[in-house]
Design brief:
Length: 82
């Protein structure tokens, strides 16, 4: 994830999540805006992000993954922690 601009990361996260939903996922997508984003879909989302971005989320980080923007924030904090 190093050397990604915030927009590139938003685009990347949206590209990873879109195939998991029946509609395109944009930068403002969240558990509130996407009815399909339930607890089962959440597991798919985490799995897809970890697989495709080669990251592992901590339990604390997992609690924060409720929107595209929050996912990007968590990913950026992981970049700065390395």
């Amino acid at each position: 994830m190093k050397n990604h601009t915030p927009n590139a990361t938003v685009e990347q996260v949206c590209a990873i999540l879109t195939p998991l939903f029946s509609e395109p996922v944009g930068p403002d997508a969240s558990t509130i805006t996407l009815k399909e984003w339930d607890s089962l879909k959440y597991l798919e989302i985490v799995g897809a992000l970890e697989d495709q971005l080669a990251v592992e989320f901590t339990a604390q980080e997992l609690l924060r993954l409720s929107s595209v923007r929050e996912i990007v924030t968590v990913l950026h904090s992981k970049d700065h922690a390395e």
